[in-house]
Piriformospora indica-insensitive protein 2 (Glycine soja), 239 residues
Amino acid sequence: MGALLEDPYRAQTHPQPCTDTPWPGVECELSNSNQPIFHVTKIHIGPDIVFPFQPCKPSAYLSQSLMKLKYIKTLSIFDCFGASPVILPKTLFGPFTSLEHLALENNPSLCGDIPTSLGGVTGLRSLGNNSLSGQVPPNLGSLPSLDQQNISHNKLSGVLELPGDFIQKLGKMLDLRGNSELCISDQSKKKNLSSYLEIPSCLNTRQRNDNNYFAGTVATQVHVHHGQKIYMSSYLPWF
């Protein structure tokens, strides 16, 4: 939590977040072992935590110490990363065999590719309103129990390769809007999905790019006359 929150005294004021000094947004469960131990199972950071709300610090980042939370089930971070760039490490969520729900939303400086390791998170709820780029990993569509997914308003690009049956299963609960460089292929079985998902067809995107052309003249020589450049131009063919 120290890598995220502005409060430098959190550890002193809440030394036992699972018992005597609970911290809003943190939940714990008691293990079933012979020696009972509390394990953190939920971390939620966002402006909806009214009291005592602690904003994220400008240099907030995802600490590798998160990988030590082997029993965490829910991780949600809202409105936190807004200044310093934060990239999702490719293996950050790999060890989270117990992670069931993940939401990282409204973080303008959360950037980089979506790790394929997120395909193992059974409840990948939202990655919306960030600055994530690159392609959408196809294995995000292999989660059988997923009933909604929001990756809207990022900087994603390329061809959407999520399975058609996965797209139809989620319906309007799959939100891909606001990714201007993302398109869907023009296979016959997907021909109606472009308007349904509100993302362009790759065919239309290619046609739009093909219509970009240069016209006019190209400078071939440059002369200097009394300190001013005079361009001698002629028409040149474009290849």
